[in-house]
Design goal:
CATH class of the largest domain in chain A: Mainly Alpha
Helix content of chain B: over 70%
Number of helices of chain A: 6
Number of strands of chain B: 0
Distance between the termini of chain A: 64 Å
Largest sheet of chain A: none
Structural class of chain A: mainly alpha
Radius of gyration of chain A: 21 Å
Structural class of chain B: mainly alpha
Oligomer: heterodimer
Largest sheet of chain B: none
């Protein structure tokens, strides 16, 4: 039990520190690489609570595909490697205030409602029974319509991205 | 493990992402901050799924991951088009519709 807490603490600390670097660093490539750490931490948390399929999907899609997409976007849109350093607004106070207010409200509400509630409170034997087989059973029976809808959405997004980013060659 | 550990981490990550969306001027960095927000939501979904002993949380998280991938594809295509037309992805300069 204590090992779980320690593992969570380490992962959470690394994730929060990396996330702060993502939104504060001035180097865009560094921001993308710090984002990798945050996404890997999320995947590790999924594994920690027994959501192994979601964790593996997180690694495959986010770290495998989305980050590569980001790096391509950075490479294709960086005109001057030294000059283009203005990545933030001049006045950050409103953004800091909004984020702090939001986090205060959310932490207050969560501590008020869920203080001391155990994650496995609803499990009979303390064992996590959500297996990949169960996920696939649910996904392909009860959630088959949303699944197909999301497939069509991905196809539409793919075609849309190609159409938007395509170079216009005489119309 | 406590439920609140996951939820509080999700809240903190969410707010860091909100700060990034508000404070950043670079289009790609804003998209990265949106990814932070979506991941915070995924943490909450999986945590509540495990708490209620159901796979619905995981399935919703999978849908969110899929939609986030589509969103990044479209978003980066738009940023690319912006760069091609204006030679800059500074979002403060995208003010053609300013009254």
């Amino acid at each position: 039990m204590i090992a779980e807490h320690v593992a969570f603490g380490i992962i959470a600390a690394v994730m929060v520190a990396s996330a702060l670097r993502v939104v504060t660093t001035r180097d865009i490539v560094h921001a993308a690489l710090y984002l990798v750490i945050v996404l890997a931490g999320v995947a590790a948390l999924f594994l920690l609570v027994g959501a192994e399929f979601t964790g593996i999907t997180q690694v495959l899609i986010y770290i495998g595909a989305v980050i590569v997409l980001f790096l391509f976007g950075i490479m294709l849109t960086r005109s001057d490697f030294d000059q283009d350093t203005e990545t933030d607004h001049k006045r950050k106070f409103p953004a800091v205030l909004t984020a702090l207010l939001l986090v205060a409200v959310m932490i207050g509400a969560l501590v008020d409602r869920f203080e001391g509630v155990r994650l496995d409170a609803n499990l009979p034997g303390g064992q996590t029974p959500q297996t990949t087989a169960q996920v696939s059973d649910e996904l392909f029976s009860q959630y088959i319509v949303p699944f197909e809808a999301v497939s069509v959405l991905l196809l539409a997004a793919l075609i849309g991205a190609i159409v938007i980013a395509r170079r216009e060659e005489g119309g | 493990m406590l439920l609140n550990e996951m939820l509080l981490l999700g809240a903190v990550l969410f707010c860091i992402g909100v700060y990034g969306v508000l404070a950043r001027r670079n289009g790609v960095l804003v998209l990265m901050s949106i990814e932070l927000i979506l991941n915070a939501v995924n943490i909450n979904l999986v945590a509540f799924g495990a708490f209620h002993d159901t796979v619905m949380g995981q399935i919703f998280a999978l849908f969110v991951i899929t939609v986030a991938a589509a969103e990044v594809g479209i978003g980066l295509a738009i940023v690319l088009l912006l760069y091609r037309n204006r030679r800059s992805i500074d979002l403060d300069q995208v003010d053609l519709m300013k009254g």
